[in-house]
């Protein structure tokens, strides 16, 4: 912010009066309009070509400013005697000086200085501070504030007298800025600022009654370059609002001022055991769409001033979503039913509103994400939202080629798991997969698929895919990991079954690549933190095989959000 203006206006000093005339009057009145200009200067950011103004750092619609005025002045008068030669007598002097100054409708009158011989000289001075608040509209980053001022001084005296008067008015513009959340932040554009998550308050001792979670928004307003006294004058003129809906309480506890900052605070619980800054929203929203982009608005004298964009999130691994879901039926790895099932975590509740889970699928705390070959039930666990890397393939000269890894997290992982396990189920139903490794089956596939060269498979273990299907769909019936891609994941013994499921899962991912914009899980969701890629790109990273350390499973290449055009996305492409 740059501010240019006249900062001081002073009526000219009238000087001393000393005259032989019977009376003399010298008066001056001056009016002037001060013009303050406010120009918004964006922050600078580093670009490949050097530092440049940040295009995302735009001025607010309005600027609130506290004008701090100091009015001051002085008067002086002195009288003496002198011999008047024409009358051959003594002349005894008298003088009067006065002055006043007005700025923005506030007037200071300096006490008049009156002197008459033989009294000694008389002088007076006075000063007064005033404050006015304005909310001004910004137009193209510029706004003006005209301030009307006037000042008058007068001295009057007889012979053998002197006097003077002076006045001044000083104005200090002090912007009233919302400093938390940061109005310069643009989380809706992916910069990772102003992000807040509903906490999981279970187990916080005396606060555990609020187990449905709280969202604390820290709010701070700063009177730029203001004093503590000036800040106290601004404090009662402020208010703050948000557009957050779907919560049960918004508790404003107190507003305090310290130095040049003003902070609204909340109390947590029936007594201020844990004072919190800003707004306190209790109970998570019912709908996933209630999270995300919101506004915090600073109100000054009833007028909208600064606005900050924020994003709200849920804790993905907490269990504090509103309402009561039916208790799911969980199965242990041995096929028995868990007698004490726990509710699934938040990510399962909210992600299902964005991308529906497969039919006949369950969340489980027991065992891995998997498809049961006997019941064809799908089980997803905590792995279904954490960072994950899947191999990507293409068909090259009649051979399936592993070309790189696609890394993602959050709702992408959830969509991948749903697509991957749905593919396993479909492949089992179609007879493509035999389920050999999931049972004690003695099917041909189980006993015949092996790697005679001692490569990436356990000797004697089948990959769970029909040898007949493999033979006509570019897979080697003698290898359980034809491409070698699954040695990175430890699934080489069933690599070809995973390959087929991954091909179909990638097609599901690509069809739903825009759903990352609805991922409000913290901390593993796609939108939490600074985005790796521009907003118009999917928030995943493809690393070609040339950028992967195959021995240590490390992707060291820079990666890209763009997949090659010829990747395999459906096993029908292998026909």
Structure notes:
By secondary structure, this protein is mostly beta strands. The strands form 9 sheets. Strands 2, 6, 11, 13, 16, 18, 19 and 20 form an 8-stranded antiparallel sheet that branches. A 5-stranded antiparallel sheet has the order 1-3-12-9-10, with no helix packed on it. Strands 14, 17, 22, 23 and 29 form a 5-stranded mixed sheet that branches. A hairpin with a 2-residue loop joins strand 4 and strand 5.
Task: Spell out the key features of this protein.
32 strands, single chain, rod-shaped, five-stranded antiparallel sheet, 575 residues, disordered N terminus, eight-stranded antiparallel sheet, mainly beta
Gyration radius (Cα, Å) is 39 Å
Q: Main beta sheet, described?
A: 8 strands, antiparallel
Percent of residues in helices:
10-25%
Shape: rod-shaped
Number of helices: 6
User: Could you tell me the strand content as a percent range?
Assistant: 35-45%
Give the helix/strand class: mainly beta
Q: Could you list the spans in which at least 5 consecutive residues all have pLDDT below 50?
A: 1-26, 202-211, 269-275, 324-329, 437-461
> Count of DSSP E strands?
32
Distance between the termini: 65 Å
**Mean pLDDT across residues:** 80
């Amino acid at each position: 912010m740059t501010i240019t203006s006249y900062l001081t206006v002073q009526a000219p000093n009238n000087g001393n009066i000393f005259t032989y005339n019977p009376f003399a009057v010298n008066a001056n009145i001056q009016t002037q309009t001060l013009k303050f200009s406010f120009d918004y200067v964006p922050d600078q950011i580093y670009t490949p070509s050097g530092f440049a103004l940040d295009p995302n750092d735009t001025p607010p619609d309005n600027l609130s400013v506290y004008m701090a005025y100091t009015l001051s002045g002085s008067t002086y008068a002195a009288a003496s005697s002198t011999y008047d030669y024409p009358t051959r007598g003594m002349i005894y002097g008298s003088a009067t000086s006065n002055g006043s100054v007005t700025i923005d409708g506030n007037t200071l009158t300096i006490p008049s200085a009156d002197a008459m011989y033989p009294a000694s000289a008389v002088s007076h001075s006075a000063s007064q501070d005033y404050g006015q608040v304005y909310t001004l509209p910004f137009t193209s980053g510029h706004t003006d504030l005209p301030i009307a001022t006037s000042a008058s001084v007068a001295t009057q005296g007889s012979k053998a007298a002197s006097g003077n008067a002076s006045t001044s008015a000083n104005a200090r513009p002090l912007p009233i800025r919302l400093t938390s959340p940061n109005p310069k932040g643009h989380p809706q554009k992916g910069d990772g600022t102003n992000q807040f998550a509903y906490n999981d308050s279970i187990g916080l001792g005396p606060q555990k009654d609020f187990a449905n979670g709280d969202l604390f928004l820290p709010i701070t307003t700063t009177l730029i370059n203001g004093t503590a006294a000036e800040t106290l004058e601004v404090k009662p003129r402020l208010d703050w609002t948000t557009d957050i809906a779907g919560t049960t309480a918004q508790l404003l506890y107190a507003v305090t001022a310290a130095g040049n900052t003003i902070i609204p605070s909340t109390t947590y619980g029936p007594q201020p055991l844990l004072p919190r800054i800003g707004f306190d929203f209790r109970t998570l929203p019912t709908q996933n769409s209630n999270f995300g982009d919101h506004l915090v608005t600073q109100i000054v004298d009833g007028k909208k001033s600064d606005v900050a964009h924020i994003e709200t999130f849920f804790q993905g691994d907490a269990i504090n979503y509103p309402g009561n879901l039916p208790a799911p039926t969980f199965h242990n790895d041995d096929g028995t039913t868990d007698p004490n099932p726990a509710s699934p975590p938040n990510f399962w509740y909210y992600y299902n509103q964005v991308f529906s889970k497969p039919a006949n699928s369950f969340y489980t705390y027991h065992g891995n994400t998997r498809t049961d070959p006997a019941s064809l039930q799908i089980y997803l666990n905590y792995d279904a939202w954490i960072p994950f890397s899947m191999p990507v393939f293409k068909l090259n000269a009649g051979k399936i080629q592993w070309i790189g890894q696609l890394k993602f997290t959050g709702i992408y992982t959830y969509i991948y798991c749903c697509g991957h396990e749905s593919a396993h189920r479909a492949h089992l139903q179609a007879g493509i997969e035999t389920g050999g490794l999931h049972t004690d089956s003695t099917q041909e596939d189980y006993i015949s698929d092996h790697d005679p060269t001692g490569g990436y498979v356990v000797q004697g273990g089948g990959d769970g895919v029909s040898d007949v299907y493999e033979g006509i769909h570019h897979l080697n019936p003698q290898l359980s990991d034809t491409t070698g891609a699954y040695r990175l994941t430890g699934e080489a013994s069933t690599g070809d079954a995973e390959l087929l499921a991954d091909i179909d899962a990638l097609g599901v991912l690509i069809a739903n690549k825009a759903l990352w914009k609805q991922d409000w899980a913290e901390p593993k969701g796609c939108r939490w933190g600074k985005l790796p890629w521009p907003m118009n790109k999917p928030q995943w990273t493809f690393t070609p095989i040339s950028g992967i350390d195959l021995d240590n499973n490390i992707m060291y290449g820079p990666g890209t959000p763009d997949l090659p055009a010829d990747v395999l996305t459906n096993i029908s492409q292998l026909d």
